[in-house]
Design goal:
Layout (H helix, E strand, L loop, with lengths): L6 H12 L4 E5 L6 H8 L4 E5 L14 E4 L6 H5 L2 H8 L1 H13 L2 E7 L26 H19 L5 E6 L11
Parallel strand pairs: 1-2, 3-4, 4-5
């Protein structure tokens, strides 16, 4: 799982561990929490690897599921790291998809409601394409996620990976960052 030391990643790791599964967490800790990684490391079956998924991934990984959650997600987080945000959602996604293909693993891409931009329709249906500004200040995040969705679907269409996309909307709770 990429981004496993982040808010949603932490809870997903904990849930998988509760089910008796082993979890390998890849996180560069740029927006993830060291405390989350340390807390999970106390649990049997959890392995933490501090790395950036835009770099080469460990070739020896053998997994059944690949969850790609790595990305700055808060507005201050991605505005302070626009190029990193674009890279993790483009080359990071491609590397995680390649890992899923190599391992014949199922893939889950964590997207966002931000792909709709400033919607003209509320609530948004799955068929709504959005009202986006591809060169605006927030484009690094929403366009990065749009790229990640497109790349994921190309892997699905070419039958290289069994994949799903989740579009997460305005989520908060225990262990979420205040920003």
């Amino acid at each position: 799982m990429s981004g496993g030391a982040g808010f949603i990643g932490y809870h997903l790791c904990a849930s998988l561990l509760d089910r008796g599964l082993s979890v390998v967490c890849l996180d560069n800790l740029s927006t993830g929490s060291v405390q989350n990684a340390q807390d999970l490391a106390q649990r049997p079956g959890f392995t933490f690897v501090e790395c950036d998924v835009t770099d080469d991934l460990c070739e020896e990984l053998s997994v059944r599921f690949v969850y790609h959650l790595a990305s700055p997600a808060s507005v201050p987080g991605y505005l302070s790291r626009p190029l990193e945000t674009l890279l993790v959602n483009s080359s990071g996604t491609m590397r995680m998809l390649a890992l899923a293909q190599q391992c014949r693993a199922q893939f889950l891409f964590s997207s966002t409601s931000e792909i709709y931009g400033d919607p003209l329709v509320h609530p948004q249906s799955e068929s709504y394409w959005g009202n986006v500004n591809p060169v605006g200040i927030r484009a690094c995040y929403d366009e990065g996620k749009r790229f990640g969705e497109a790349a994921t679907m190309e892997y699905v269409r070419s039958s290289r990976v069994d994949a799903r996309i989740v579009r997460i909307f305005n989520t908060y709770g225990p262990r979420s960052r205040p920003d």
